[in-house]
């Protein structure tokens, strides 16, 4: 009988998943997806091979579960951060800043590499988790235009432009002590790109 982590089977399963996801996150950053094995993740997570196979039949299933968990956590984090400020320009600055900080915190295979590693249907399932994030950005842009803080433009044209600008790891590929300055520059760039004339006072 495998040792139960926590006070119940439900808690045990949650803690196993948390340990496995933490181990996978580290290995993605250090080694890349292709070099990862379920056995290696289980060893680093200090869970038995049987336990990990009970949750994830292969490493692709593990990656999908991990990305879904990360996406759900991030969507909640983003919504809370945006809701904490009222001005649409500040909301847009908050969105850009958080997107880049998360990009700096986590290392996942680039979109093309991930698409090649997974079946098309599986990759689409993962990609669908970007929809709430994009919807949040669209809501910010629309609110900014309605309030007069942003000039009237087609938000569906701005969306892919902003998303593409924030997708490059080159922005945050700087020494740690230079990261915040790089993010500040990106925030100013996006705000000016959408027509903000007066930047938030503490972000100039």
Describe the structure concisely.
This protein is mainly alpha-helical and 204 residues long.
Q: Helices and strands in order, then pairings?
A:
Elements: H1 9-30, H2 38-45, H3 49-55, H4 59-83, H5 88-105, H6 111-117, H7 120-127, H8 131-147, H9 155-166, H10 179-193
Beta content: under 5%
Helix content: 55-70%
The major sheet is characterized as: none
CATH topology assignment of the largest domain: Tetracycline Repressor, domain 2
Radius of gyration: 20 Å
Shape: elongated
Overall pLDDT confidence: 84
Distance between the termini: 60 Å
Oligomeric grouping of the chains: single chain
CATH class descriptor of the largest domain: Mainly Alpha
Run of helices and strands: HHHHHHHHHH
Just name the CATH architecture of the largest domain: Orthogonal Bundle
What is the number of helices?
A: 10
What would you give as the CATH superfamily of the largest domain?
Answer: Tetracycline Repressor, domain 2
Give me the secondary-structure category.
Answer: mainly alpha
The domain tally reads: 2
Number of strands: 0
Q: Give unreliable regions as ranges.
A: none
InterPro entries: DNA-bd_HTH_TetR-type_CS, Homeodomain-like_sf, HTH-type_TetR-like_transc_reg, HTH_TetR, KstR2_TetR_C, Tet_transcr_reg_TetR-rel_C_sf
Keywords: DNA-binding, Transcription, Transcription regulation
Organism: Amycolatopsis antarctica
Pfam families: TetR_C_24, TetR_N
């Amino acid at each position: 009988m495998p040792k139960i982590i926590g006070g119940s089977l439900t808690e045990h399963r949650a803690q196993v998943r948390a340990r496995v996801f933490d181990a996978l996150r580290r290995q993605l950053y250090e080694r890349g997806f292709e070099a990862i094995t379920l056995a290696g993740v289980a060893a680093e997570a200090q869970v038995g091979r049987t336990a990990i196979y009970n949750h994830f039949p292969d490493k692709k299933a593990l990656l999908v579960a991990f990305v879904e968990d990360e996406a759900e956590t991030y969507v909640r984090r983003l919504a809370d951060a945006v809701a904490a400020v009222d001005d649409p320009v500040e909301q847009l600055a908050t969105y850009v800043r958080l997107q880049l900080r998360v990009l700096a915190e986590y290392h996942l295979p680039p979109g093309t590499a991930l698409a090649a590693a997974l079946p098309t249907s599986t990759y689409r399932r993962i990609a669908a988790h970007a929809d709430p994030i994009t919807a949040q950005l669209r809501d910010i842009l629309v609110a900014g235009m309605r309030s007069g803080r942003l000039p009237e433009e087609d938000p569906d044209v701005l969306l892919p432009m902003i998303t593409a600008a924030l997708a490059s790891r080159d922005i945050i590929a700087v020494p740690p002590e230079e990261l915040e300055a790089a993010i500040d520059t990106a925030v100013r760039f996006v705000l000016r790109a959408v027509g903000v004339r007066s930047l938030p006072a503490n972000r100039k």
